[in-house]
Amino acid sequence: MSVENRAKVVSLAHRVGAVLLTVLMNMNASAAGVRPHTVG
Predict the structure, then answer these.
(1) Looking at residue 23, what is its pLDDT?
(2) What is the pTM of this model?
(3) 3-22 burial: b if 16+ Cβ within 10 Å, else e
(4) Cα-Cα-Cα-Cα dihedral of 14, 18, 19, 22, to 10°?
(5) Rounded CA gap, 2 and 16, in Å?
(6) Please, which domain of life does this record's source organism belong to (predicted)?
(7) From residue 1, how far is each of 5, 6, 7, 16, 32 by CA, in Å?
(8) Can you say whether the dihedral through the CA atoms of 10, 23, 34, 38 is positive or negative?
(9) Tens of pLDDT, residues 1-40
(10) DSSP structure class, residue 13
């Protein structure tokens, strides 16, 4: 695998991971009845 392709895959994996983490946190917050925007 070339360096460019590896960089693309890594950046894509990080992006997908960040989105999944955000969705998971939003689901947990909504399940607990708390809105993330109102915290703090």
Answers:
(1) 92
(2) 0.56
(3) eeeeeeeeeeeeeeeeeeee
(4) 170
(5) 21
(6) Bacteria
(7) 7, 7, 10, 21, 44
(8) positive
(9) 799 999 999 999 999 999 999 999 888 877 777 655 655 5
(10) H
- DSSP for 19-37? HHHHHHHHHHHHHTT--GG
How many whole angstroms separate alpha carbon 25 and alpha carbon 22?
A: 5
> Which structure tokens are listed for 35?
């809105």
Q: Which two tokens stand for residue 37?
A: 């925007």
Structure tokens given for 13: 């994996």
Tokens 């607990």 identify what position?
A: 32
Q: According to the model, what pLDDT value does residue 16 have?
A: 96
